[in-house]
Design brief:
Layout lengths: L1 H8 L2 H9 L4 H16 L3 H15 L3 E8 L3 E8 L3 H6 L2 H4 L9 H8 L3 E3 L4 H6 L17 E9 L2 E10 L8 H61 L4 H33 L5 E5 L1 H18 L3 E6 L6 E3 L1 H17 L6 E9 L2 E8 L33 H11 L3 E5 L7 E8 L6 E2 L1
Parallel strand pairs: 7-9
Antiparallel strand pairs: 1-2, 1-5, 3-4, 4-5, 6-8, 6-13, 9-10, 10-12, 11-12
Length: 438
């Protein structure tokens, strides 16, 4: 967290300006204390709690800090000054989730980016804070009388809100309170944004380390049997059959390593926007048959039965034949990989209105329902896919989806659940491209 603290310390000049502009000594001291808390703490959660606690000594009897995540979800980071019996027994997030479309409170402030102040706590305002009106009590059992909420904005985005309530009916929210609250929000927003940037950087480093480790493992995996076979060929007098098996193993693992490298290169091209198609009219049946032929020996080696069910397609489709074959091959090789011996894979081809439909169905290990939304994400694999026995980087389906989309097609995955197989459905339109590069 040192990075965040260092970045915050660069705002000392701005912090001094915030402090000096307030006339009263107590206000200046309050802001100085707040900026010190934000600049020195290494624990963001405790920093926000300490900041809210400090706010209850100067601005209000109650303070809550909210974050705005993915521009759609409001989350309470901390609440200070609530009646203890309510805080202990009231599950705020579960019973009264915050509503972005609320006419009052943090939802309104986050949606509009404008502050809100009131000298009366309405039922709508209580609900917007996650309480029933008769349950909203401040520490000591006091009823709140005034409310102030200001947005937390950083780099042109609203990233949260900070709210204050007071129990003193004689205390009205004035311009001094609003100015002090805005300055506090400004400092807090910098801290929140820097903490998020730090977290994102740490997560990126973690993913990079995982990726390097995974790629190293996957590239090394085919090398081990290849080196073993080469050693046998050099040192042992192998018979004809054993000699052929050794060569087959070397060839099979060399192809596996080439595929890993090709997948990595394809992902690099996708990220750089440099993966292009060479479009022309093609016979989709011959492309699919070529993909099936390329996996038959792999399926036979596992005693997996491959069944084809092709309808006559009356007209050619427009596409890149090599990339279309890659799409179908990837789906079929995945089906073989995840289907146990004596299992079955069926690939069907039919015309569906103005689309050609290619469907790959297997009786394999299936896909958990919670993983289906992420099945086409890069580097994602279901926990049930035992990577100790089934290699892969989790790139193939991500590449497939991108290639399908370049063809203006669609792909869907479905599965009844673990152990019940999976179905992948491809659809490509019959519209025409001019031959050439896309």
């Amino acid at each position: 967290m040192a990075t965040v603290s260092n970045r915050l310390s660069t705002t000392d000049g701005a912090g001094r300006v915030l402090v000096q502009k307030h006339a009263t000594e107590s206000a200046r001291q309050f802001l100085a204390d707040a900026i010190a808390i934000l600049a020195t703490s290494v624990d963001f959660k405790s920093t926000i709690e300490n900041l809210a606690t400090l706010a209850t000594t100067q601005l209000a009897d109650w303070c809550a800090v909210f974050s705005f995540e993915n521009e759609q979800t409001i989350r309470r980071l901390t609440v200070v000054g609530i009646e203890e019996s309510i805080g202990a027994n009231f599950q705020l997030e579960t019973l009264y989730p915050l509503d972005l479309h609320s006419p009052a409170g943090p939802g309104h402030v986050l949606r509009t980016g404008e502050h809100q102040a009131s000298t009366r706590i309405t039922d709508d305002m209580a609900a917007s804070l996650g309480f029933k009106p008769d349950e909203l009590l401040l520490a000591g059992g006091r009823k709140p009388s005034s409310f102030l909420c200001v947005p937390l904005a950083a780099r042109g985005r609203t990233i949260g809100a900070i709210a204050f309530m007071s129990a003193d009916p004689e205390r009205l929210v004035n311009e001094t309170d609003l100015s002090l609250a805005r300055d506090l929000a400004c400092a807090a927003a910098v801290a929140m944004d820097n903490a998020r940037l730090y977290h994102d950087a740490q997560e990126a480093n973690r993913l990079k380390d995982e990726f390097v480790a995974m790629v190293s493992h996957e590239l090394r995996t085919p090398l081990t049997p290849m080196l073993g076979c080469i050693h046998l060929l050099r040192t042992a007098d192998l018979s004809g059959a054993n000699f052929s098996r050794a060569l087959d193993m070397i060839e099979r693992n060399a192809h596996a390593q080439v595929q890993i490298v090709e997948d990595l290169l394809d992902v690099s091209r996708i990220v750089a926007g440099k993966l292009h198609l060479t479009m022309k009219a093609i016979d989709v049946v011959s492309v699919v048959e070529a993909a099936v032929d390329s996996v038959r020996s792999l399926a036979e080696g596992k005693s997996v039965h491959v069944i084809t069910n092709f309808e006559d397609i009356e007209e050619p489709i427009d596409g890149d034949p090599d990339r279309l074959q890659q799409i179908v091959w990837n789906l079929l090789s995945n089906a073989v990989k995840f289907t146990p011996p004596d299992g079955r894979i069926e690939i069907s081809l039919k015309q569906d209105g103005d689309h050609v439909c290619i469907q790959v169905t297997d009786t394999g290990i299936g896909i958990p329902s919670e993983f289906l939304p992420y099945i086409f994400d890069r580097f994602r694999q279901a926990d049930e896919y035992d990577t100790k026995t089934r290699s892969g980087l989790g790139l193939g389906l991500a590449i497939v989806r991108h290639l399908v989309e370049l063809h203006q097609g669609s792909i869907e995955a479905s599965s009844p659940g673990p152990g019940q197989g999976a179905v992948f459905t491809l659809k490509f339109p019959f519209h025409r491209y001019a031959p050439g590069r896309l």
